[in-house]
């Protein structure tokens, strides 16, 4: 039987869409099966997808039931399984694991947490954070709804995931320390078999191309030929731009060119005014689907 890469993705929740989109952007056809079945094969890549609860994914990868999976780094580190490694950081589902206290509590430093009762679903990560700072506190483990603990007098502080901060706000809490910054990560076994690793490398090659493409844009602009040097200097380029002569319009007093280049999007926005001041016109910015360097 030929080798198939078994991939565990979150069945539903904050990681699901980002995970499925990534697989699809890698050109892997899930046959429109997203969500309907719990286990199915891709049609154009030797891959089988399993939809699981995120908390179960590290264990399934570690014991070899599946080969790789996508989870929040927070879940991976909380489990602390030495058989697992981060194969690729994926940049979506970003959040932080933070300590929060009631807004009315006077707070100046982490030392103010000494002796408090802290509710959390992340006792391992919080435990090491506190130990590193030499703080002793009582941890009260809850598997969810941690934010309500202070209001119920179950705890004086909490340690939970935060993204916008609005959940803390609506429970009268303020974020005071960041224990961990987390994002979705692709995880695998450190001792993945060679034939599986070859498939994983094919997948990683595609993920790289997708990630690079997301950070870049294809830009086309027109400019007088005399501005090419100035524009080339300003353009946040990856390689020398392509310069194509334009047909001279009747009555025109100078030659014009079209300049094409692949640029980092962030830098592009910083330099757009300079480009225009140097004579660039009709600037088109296009998305890139894949970028293979
Ligand atoms: O059903 P299953 O067990 O698979 O899912 P789950 O309910 O355990 O997890 P889910 O889908 O809520 O989160 C999956 C992963 O998404 C987490 O492990 C994180 O890595 C990541 N993530 C990103 C978040 C958040 N952002 C987030 N905001 N996980 C949870 N939250 C919660 C947080 O706990 C709090 O209750 O959202 C609330 C706060 O959000 P804000 O925006 O108000 O700050
Ligand atoms: Zn979960």
Strand content: 25-35%
| Main sheet overview | 6 strands, mixed
Estimated helix fraction? 25-40%
Quaternary structure annotation: single chain
User: Rounded to an integer, what's the Rg over CA atoms?
Assistant: 25 Å
Number of helices: 8
Structural class: alpha/beta
- Number of distinct beta strands: 15
Report how far apart the termini are: 34 Å
Overall average residue pLDDT: 94
Q: Secondary-structure element order, as H and E? A: EHEEHEHEEEHEEHEEHEHEEHE
| Strand ordering within the main sheet | 2-3-1-4-11-5
Set down the secondary structure blueprint.
Elements lengths: L4 E6 L5 H10 L13 E3 L5 E6 L4 H6 L5 E5 H7 L4 E6 L5 E8 L14 E4 L2 H10 L5 E4 L15 E6 L3 H5 L2 E10 L1 E6 L4 H22 E9 L3 H7 L7 E4 L10 E9 H13 L3 E7 L6
Parallel strand pairs: 1-3, 1-4, 7-8, 7-9
Antiparallel strand pairs: 2-3, 4-11, 5-11, 6-9, 6-10, 12-14, 12-15, 13-14
Phosphoribosyl ATP binds next to helix 3, strand 9 and helix 5.
Explained architecture:
This protein has 293 residues and is an alpha/beta fold. It is built from eight helices and 15 strands. The protein has helices at residues 16-25, 57-62, 73-79, 123-132, 166-170, 194-215, 228-234, 265-277; strands spanning 5-10, 39-41, 47-52, 68-72, 84-89, 95-102, 117-120, 138-141, 157-162, 173-182, 184-189, 216-224, 242-245, 256-264, 281-287. The strands form three sheets. A six-stranded mixed β-sheet has the order 2-3-1-4-11-5. A five-stranded mixed β-sheet has the order 8-7-9-6-10. β2 and β3 form a beta hairpin. The protein is flat. The two termini are 34 Å apart. Bound molecules: phosphoribosyl ATP and zinc ion (ZN). Zinc ion binds next to loops.
């Amino acid at each position: 039987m030929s080798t198939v890469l078994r991939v565990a993705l979150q069945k539903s929740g904050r990681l699901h869409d980002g995970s499925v989109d990534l697989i699809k952007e890698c050109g892997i056809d899930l046959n429109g099966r997203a969500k309907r079945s719990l286990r199915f094969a891709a049609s154009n890549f030797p891959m089988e997808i399993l939809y699981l609860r995120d908390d179960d994914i590290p264990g399934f990868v570690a014991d070899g039931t599946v080969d790789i999976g996508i989870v929040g780094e927070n879940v991976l580190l909380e489990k602390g399984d030495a058989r697992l490694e981060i194969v690729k950081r994926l940049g979506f589902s970003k959040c932080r694991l933070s300590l929060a206290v009631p807004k009315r509590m006077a707070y100046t430093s982490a030392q103010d947490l000494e002796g408090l009762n802290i509710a959390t679903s992340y006792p391992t990560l919080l435990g090491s954070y506190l130990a590193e700072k030499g703080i002793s506190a009582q941890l009260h483990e809850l598997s969810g709804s941690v934010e309500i603990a202070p209001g119920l007098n179950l705890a004086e502080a909490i340690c939970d995931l935060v993204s916008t901060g609005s959940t803390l706000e609506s429970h009268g809490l303020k974020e005071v320390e960041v224990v961990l910054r987390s994002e979705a990560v692709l995880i695998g076994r450190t001792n993945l078999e060679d034939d599986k690793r070859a498939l994983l490398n094919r997948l990683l090659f595609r993920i790289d191309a997708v990630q690079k493409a997301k950070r870049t844009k294809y830009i086309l602009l027109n400019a007088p030929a005399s501005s090419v040097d100035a524009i080339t200097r300003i353009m946040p380029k990856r390689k020398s731009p392509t310069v194509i002569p334009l047909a001279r319009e009747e009555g025109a007093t100078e030659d014009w060119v079209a300049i094409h280049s692949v640029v980092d999007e962030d830098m592009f926005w910083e330099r757009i005014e300079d480009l225009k001041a140097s004579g660039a016109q009709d600037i088109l910015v296009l998305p890139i689907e894949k970028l293979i360097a």
